[in-house]
UniProtKB/TrEMBL annotation:
Lineage, opening ranks: Bacteria, Pseudomonadati, Bacteroidota, Flavobacteriia, Flavobacteriales
One BP term from GO: DNA transposition
Record protein name field: Transposase
UniProt domain Transposase IS200-like: residue ranges: 9-148
Domain of life: Bacteria
Stored Pfam families: Y1_Tnp
Gene3D superfamilies: Transposase IS200-like (3.30.70.1290)
MF-aspect GO terms: sequence-specific DNA binding; transposase activity
Alphabetized SMART domains for the sequence: Y1_Tnp (SM01321)
């Protein structure tokens, strides 16, 4: 597998996008967003994940982050995807979900071609990772992440979107701590 868009180092920050197969809008439900938040918290507390910015959109998540304390970011992301895949499927099966049948069928069909024995595939293969190389680049990516829900017309102002670090940067209530970068 190519490492062109993989975060294979430790102690270096990356802009990462992780996307659901077929760009399915999984994260329109609070319970699914909370799975991601809780998994990110776990990775922060137990796997050396340091987050500088994030935004959970309906079909993908953006992060600016790095692996610390000897943890390699690609390993953290791999474990995050594996864990959240199982929890997302479990939640679709066990909690009220009007889209249950077609989502489960889509996730099943998404892994039919795989060689390894797998029942469901929630995330696209790999993830898109861009190495952070300058303050200008990181500012551009933070602005992009925070304005994603505004561009999508979900909210009028970036800090109004609850599942984004724009709230952290605006000193507003949030569910996920981030390391604030003041490059502006």
């Amino acid at each position: 597998m190519s490492t062109k868009y993989k975060a294979t180092t430790t102690e270096e920050a990356y802009f990462i996008t992780i996307t659901a197969v077929g760009w399915i809008d999984i994260f329109t439900r609070l319970n699914q967003k909370n799975i991601l938040i809780n998994a990110l918290k776990y990775c922060q507390e137990n796997k050396g994940l340091e987050i500088y910015a994030y935004c959970i959109m309906s079909s993908h998540i953006h992060l600016i982050c790095k692996g610390t304390n000897g943890f390699v970011l690609s390993d953290i992301i791999r474990d995050f995807k594996k864990f959240t895949s199982k929890k997302i499927i479990q939640t679709i099966i066990n909690e009220p979900e009007s889209r249950r049948e077609w989502m489960l069928e889509y996730f099943q069909k998404s892994c039919e071609h795989l060689k390894k024995d797998q029942n469901y595939k929630v995330w696209q293969n790999g993830y898109h990772a861009e190495h952070i190389y300058s303050n200008k680049f990181i500012k551009q990516k933070i602005d992009y992440i925070h304005n994603n829900p505004v561009k999508d017309k979900t909210v009028n102002s970036a800090e109004d979107y609850y599942f984004s670090s724009a709230r952290n940067y605006s000193n507003l209530e949030n569910d996920l701590d981030v390391v604030l970068l003041y490059l502006f």
